[in-house]
Amino acid sequence: MFISAETLDGALLELYPKLLARTDDTVTATRGAFVEEIGVLIEITNSRARLSRSETRGKLFSSLGELVWYLSGSNKLDAIKPYVPQYKEEAEDGIVFGGYGPRIFGQIDQIQNVIELLRERPTSRRAVIQIFDKTDIATATPRKEIPCTIALQFFVRDDKLTAIATMRSNDAYWGLPHDVFCFTMLQEIIARSLGYDVGPYRHFAGSLHIYDKYWEDAQHFVDERYQRRIAMPPMPIGDPWPALAAIIQTEERIRGGEDFDLSKVSGLDEYWLDLIRIIQIFFTKADRSKATSIADKITFKTYRPYIMGRLQPTPKIKTTTT
Q1: What is the pLDDT at residue 157?
Q2: Phi, psi values for residue 298, rounded to 5°
Q3: Of residues 142 and 55, which shows the higher confidence score?
Q4: What does the DSSP 8-state code read for residue 85?
Q5: pTM exceeds cut of 0.90
Q6: Interval 107-148: pLDDT, tens
Q7: Where are the beta strands (DSSP E) in the chain?
Q8: H or E stretch including 309?
Q9: CB neighbour class for 307 (10 Å; exposed up to 12, middle 13-18, buried from 19)
Q10: At what angle do helices 270-283 and 60-71 cross, to 10 degrees?
């Protein structure tokens, strides 16, 4: 199956009906019954259109939290649990073995390797970040969970950076929106590091599936149907890593309960300050007045529907993350 769409929503609106049409042909695994397509390639031509505008699929807060978790190099449960509580089901002694942070930024910083390689040889086909490892399926040390992502690959073509994610297995309802957000953000981070704009994003999954407990939710998304075509703003031109370091440090302080004063942060573009504000809003939901005050300072107003959904949730159907 091949799907090409301008936005994440466009891809999901084409994908979900095809999967739901297979509900008479279920497969059962350790996590329950599901329907799947084998060997699916999804292309999103506008990589910045990485956020769904649906009230059920718009995962701004949990996706951003997961991205910061990756960038911090951590696989500790306590760093991701506030954003995605389901990770506790995969953790062993407070560690998510399949977590991507140490795999990307561990003893070898694979992102910097890719940046250096493409800076020296822009047409290279070797710019690969390996996430899945042969030891992940070693029977001598079985794990509760292993990475769903096999690798990320990057190409510079026509002065743009194209990204390809290869997945061994992918939950189309729960995991796919998070993966698209995180991987296209990494794509843009690498692109800015090299001085390029982003090209298309391609996502290949060996098994792309929806568990039966999400069938109704997926149909609800399809029934919502039309979503505005909107993209995140372009990442500021220039080296993004000082700003990313500031976000990682600030997120840890906010998550730790610090009443962080963002006015004391200097030198960051509003793009990055908005991301910190989103994290602040996530952790100040109980203080609606304060969260609203922070929301009023958001520069990119397209974030507003996600923020208002956080501050004034309208329970309609069950959702897994926020």
Answers
A1: 96
A2: -60, 130
A3: 142
A4: G
A5: yes
A6: 899 999 999 999 999 999 999 999 999 998 887 778 888 999
A7: 2-5, 27-29, 32-44, 128-130, 149-157, 160-171, 197-211
A8: helix 304-311
A9: buried
A10: 110
